[in-house]
């Protein structure tokens, strides 16, 4: 008879990338409206109905769906009763910034220790185009022992660093 494998549970919680390097995340973010959505999170107490402001928190969004969470099932059920009002309030708030009907639906779930969007800090405006440091041996001729794929990767890497160097010089 085979023994069942028990699932190994993670003891530490995941850490958001935004906590480590927000300026790098800003470069590669796919949502162009992130600054406007930041306004929504900063004004959550104004947008959310007073009856449920302590019960529900936004913790994620993807496309036109906003994910809201509560700490326990009773709070979650109560916030579901405010679905239409909450969706309307958020869309009216975002319409003032030019985003009409940005969210099409809300999804509710238990937070279970996830970090709320209200807890993330905004990325400072003065940080932009932050580049990694150049390697010490950058530009030297390196023997890749005839491996053409590695040579192409290194060449692309060098071209990328040259491009970032040009961007850095034009910003100053």
From TrEMBL:
InterPro entries: DciA-like. It comes from the Bacteria. This is DUF721 domain-containing protein. It comes from Taurinivorans muris.
